[in-house]
Amino acid sequence: MKVVIIGAGGHGQVVADILFHMWTKGRDLELVGFVDDDPEREGTSVLGLKVLGPVNKLDHIGHEAVIVALDDNRARLEMTERLDDERMINAIHPSAVLAPDVSVKPGGVVCAGAVINPGTIMERGAIVNTGAIVDHNCTLNEFSHVGPGVNLGEGVHVGQGTLIGLGASLIPKLRLGNWSVVGAGAVTTRDVPDSETWVGVPARKLS
């Protein structure tokens, strides 16, 4: 399957590396290259793959599927909706450990060393980053991002577009609202409403 990666920044490089490792494990993947709307990236090479031009050139590039590799949650949502007619694949690193019933919807990314336990659902475009632990029966809504080294207790509900920063911990059965932020290293013991930022130990709303 010929795949184009949308976005050649840092997260795009991570996704390309995941897809390469999937290919080494026998997945039918051929990485065509990147497209990126930053004109300074056009024609450059990233991890041995060419940046072929802006996203609007995608129709002129031979491919069968894409993956949106933008780390900004809202940008990832907008780009995914822009490419609604494209076949969207997942990127799941072979070193990640997923229970057999974990559901990863199109555009999902699971990075190296992540652990996702039974009953968890990753909705469209969600990210579980390097070394994160997601306990059983969690829900990661569309375009959410569980950062590197995060530890989610059982049954945590992560709202659409929500970002959980590096190394944060959340006790079981919390609900994080849509487009909220939990700061790096925070220990979250209470529900977080929509569009709020919580930081610290224990985590509190950033005023």
Automatic annotation (TrEMBL):
Keywords: Acyltransferase, Transferase. GO terms for molecular function: acyltransferase activity. CDD domains: LbH_AT_putative. Acetyl-CoA binds at H145. It comes from the Bacteria. Residues 2-83 form the PglD N-terminal domain. Coiled coil: none annotated. The keyword Transferase applies. InterPro entries: AcTrfase_PglD-like (IPR020019), PglD_N (IPR041561), Trans_hexapeptide_repeat (IPR050179), Trimer_LpxA-like_sf (IPR011004). Transmembrane segments: none annotated. Belongs to the transferase hexapeptide repeat family. This is Sugar O-acyltransferase, sialic acid O-acetyltransferase NeuD family. It comes from Paucidesulfovibrio gracilis DSM 16080.
